[in-house]
Structures are given as structure tokens and as C-alpha cells.
Amino acid sequence: MTILVTGATGTVGRRIVGQLAERGVPVRALTRNPGKAAFPAGVEVACGDLTSLETLAPALEGVTGLHLITFGGDDYAPLENGPELVELAAKAGVTRVSVLSSFDETSVEAALRAGGLGWTQLLCMEFMANAFDWTASVREEGVVRVFGNHPGAVVHEADIAAVAVAALVEEGHAGETYVVTGPEALTPEERVRLLGAAIGREIRFEEQSEEEYRASMRAAGVGDDLIEFGVRLGAEPMEAASVVAPTVERVTGRPGRTFAQWAAENAAAFRI
After folding, report:
1. Whose C-alpha in 73, 151, 153, 183 is 20 to 30 A from the C-alpha of 126?
2. CA distance 69 to 49
3. DSSP E strand stretches across 25-74
4. What DSSP state is assigned to residue 258?
5. 2-123 is a CATH 3.40.50.12280 domain
């Protein structure tokens, strides 16, 4: 059973590749830049792009399991070729699929829903790894600035990967939609405090106004659409963002990793 992992160099994809390799499962990692990819020994690397289906046919040869993301290209735009992608996978002999989704359905989920492949959907609100956005301000100023200090059940990227791996290699997950969260809902201010404890340095938390947030995003070169999206989330977060789901423990048999654990694992990135 060979499993193809798309988005293999990403935050979650890299973890999926690693966990499959640890299990001894033959894994093929899809990337647009094989020369820059670094994976564990034994992982096969394939060059391909989800927005260019002609590059996927060779990567799918001999594959029975497939992990999909729902965006592609340099602009991370939602994929519009879902039907063609799913058809190509089915013709290649894929029988089991996991999909890392947002709460906005794309052509990929719609095509899987209409097709005959066994697939499992993973829905995540916010990754713990998003805290890497704070790296520069923590290192340079000892501060984190956030617009909207609302609680969120942020999830460790390794736990998302563990649920995906279970769906790909174990029976009983086809047809399921799993909301994957961390084991607690924490505000950004609470996460900053935990991060400070991990690095052994007090970090100041500052809640931004909407105007300050817009100005900082413009200064960072963020586009207007993403700024408006961030404003909406900061002002009126989705209620589901703070709801803790039991998925990780139910699927993997162990509790989800806490943000304190994530902070300890990644403390070096925030130290001066």
C-alpha cells in the first residue's frame, strides 16, 4: 500500500509523511520543488502540482491511499479541478482518501462527495503552528500584538497528521467528517503566557484595535481580501472555533497535545 501525500512540505503534510514512514508504510511525497524537500530516509519524492493534472498521473502510479489538500499554486487559491483530480485518482486505483479542509467547501470535497472513493474529511479551525507568526516580534521586541483576544481550540499539527494517518491506514474511517481540535480553548493572551514560560522570558501581550491591525497588515504587504478576512475573524469569530472536540483521543487512542507542549517543542524559534 503506497500512500501519496500532497502538500507534503507543508505544516501538516510533512508530519503525515513522517508518521507514515515511522509506521513503515510506503509513502510518496508530492512537491513542486523536489530539490528543496527534505524527508526521512525511505520516503519517495515525486514532482507534481495539484493545479497541473498532467504532472499527477506519474505520481499516482501504484498508489492506493491519497492525502489531499484543497488549494494550490503560489496564491493558495482553492482548487477548481476537483472532479478531474478525483477521477484521475480513481482511475489510478486509489481506494482511500483523507482531505484536510476548511469550513468552506471546494470543488475537491464536492467531487469526492459525488464520487465513489472512500474518503475522510478533516476540519480544523486553527493550527498551533500559527504562533510562528509571532516569532519576529517576540525575538525583537518581546511582544505579541493580536486583534481579537478570543478563545480558540488550537490544534497541534502532529495531531492533525495522526488523525489523517489513521484514516489512511486503518479501517472504519471512510465517510466520516472529523473536526480536529486541541484539548483546550485558549485565548491568544493565554497562549502568549504559555509561550513565555517555555522560553523563560516574559512576553508582553497587546490587543490591537481594528485600525492598528489593518495598518500592520498593510505594512506587511497583506492583500485587502486577507485583511478583511482577518478583521471578520477578529471581530466576530466562529462559535465553533472555541469548541473542543474529542476527535484526537477517539481516533488515535491518546489525548491531544497541549499548547504548552507545542511551545516547549518550538521554544528555540522564539529565543533571541
Report:
1. 73
2. 11
3. 27-31, 44-47, 63-68, 71-72
4. P
5. no
Q: Per-residue DSSP letters for 175-216?
A: T-EEE---SS-B-HHHHHHHHHHHHTS--EEEEPPHHHHHHH
C-alpha 240: how far from its chain's center?
17
Q: Which element (helix H / strand E) includes 234?
A: helix 224-235
Going from N- to C-terminal start, the domains of the chain cover 2-123
Tell me: the pLDDT tens digits for 141-171? 999 999 999 999 999 999 999 999 999 999 9
Question: If 0-12 CB within 10 Å is exposed, 13-18 middle and 19+ buried, where does residue 254 land?
Answer: exposed
pLDDT tens readout for residues 82-135: 999 999 999 999 999 999 998 889 999 999 999 999 999 999 989 999 999 999
**155 bridge partner residues:** 127
Residue 169: closest CA among 8, 43, 16, 60? 16
Q: Is 220 helix (H, G, I), strand (E, B) or coil?
A: coil
Enter the DSSP assignment of 52: B
